[in-house]
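A protein record pairs a chain with a discrete description of its three-dimensional fold. The following entry can be read in just this way:
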Amino acid sequence: MDSHPALCAAIADRIANSPNQRITFATYMDMALYHPDYGYYSTQAVNIGKQGDFFTSVHLGPDFGELLAEQFVQMWEILGQPVPFSLVEMGAGQGHLALDILNYLKLRYPNFFAALQYIIVEKSPILRQEQQQRLQQFTVQIKSSLEEILSNSIVGCFFSNELVDALPVHQFILEQGQLREIYVTLQQESTLKSQSSIVNSQELFTPHTPPTPFTEITAEPSTPKLAEYFDLVGILFPENVYSEGYRSEVNLAALDWLSVVADRLQRGYVLTIDYGYPASRYYNPRRSQGTLQCYWHHQRHNNPYINIGRQDITAHVDFTALERWGERCGLAKVGLTQQELFLMALGLGDRIAALCYTNQSISDLLRRRDALRQLLDPFGLGGFSILAQSKGLKEKEKFQPLKGFTVPELPPTSI
């Protein structure tokens, strides 16, 4: 698998026509993933799932969506059962999660289902088509951006599952104690030719990967927002603690995204599900190469300059930044927990225990048990973080804890 030639040409053209013939890594990542014609999510998005490049909690069965639905029902009740109650799913993938939620609510909570307005915000045109096809039995509004939603118009919940990790990030490096930004520029022709005969298989994804036309350079930060970000999350970089060449990422796009979400929400909740850390762990001096990862056919590596347009590129989420920026935008922190605890509190333990009493075949029983266990795996999906924030709640509503953020019962050990 090599890079998409038209996408590489588009990125090269963008570099050639930019000041100093360089672009930020955030711009590069945005084009690699979201270019409207050639980006990964415009052409390769159908490769999500067990047969694709990666899979999420949704691909293990309907349980994840059904337990999320239980949380949404409680939110509706806390808010006084408003009509409509809007569920806004941001980055809905192939529509599987929406389908699981809507099927479950229609069957189990018809009153809530009748009050529900389901909205999907999806940037990828290919995924919007797939969502429309998969959800055609339901009334679902599908929008291409949050800008299509009016300010202060939503009563309900904005939620996302593995969205923020795919937002474009700036990369930085510490050089002689100074914060420098990493830019992407074009390789010199002589360098490119020499690369074609020498490929380091330890650094690149496959030993036969063609040379990349792009390379990195460092320079002054493109925006003062990078330094302001570290003021926000309370991170300093003393030279006696952080090594020369320490590099990592800053997700300014996540702050912009959260600002828009907070503006659109009149009253209700924001639920963010993703893998990540608090800032103190994210920028630990020992994590000296950051968290950027690429995924191709369930194989993980850290070279974003190969398979361009053919692979996913992600970075972990800084949940401290979401919390603190949310507060500036009027979003109050409700809770932060791990997915395994969240799902157990919503009833996943009961589902595991109920397996003892089903009439499924042994193979089906083992397959379902394995799927439920994967949702709880603290070293996998169970270790994801879930952040709940709120806006516009009345005083009595603020003191009603969300069920998913209460202390769950211990999982049964008999299965």
Observations:
- The chain is about 35% helix and 20% strand.
